[in-house]
Amino acid sequence: MGETKMFSLRESENFVEYCEFYSIEEKEVLEDSKIAEYIKKNQFNLEALIAGYSSMAELNQELCDELWGCECKQIDPQEN
After folding, report:
1. Is this prediction's pTM over 0.90?
2. Which biological process terms from the Gene Ontology are attached to this UniProt entry (predicted)?
């Protein structure tokens, strides 16, 4: 893999997440061009997955904020 492609992958905003997702060390990606090429080839799909989880996290937080009071009333019998 060319140094330019390697640099762009390493400089990616989610490089650490790529490594965590594939359970590999950052240095393995930088030292093994086959690993780096595989990640680069699948980068779009992984970015979509990250974006999806981020959207779901925001939705989950909104639901928690909205329903928190309902849950507390059921837990505290004095409020019924």
Report:
1. no
2. regulation of DNA-templated transcription
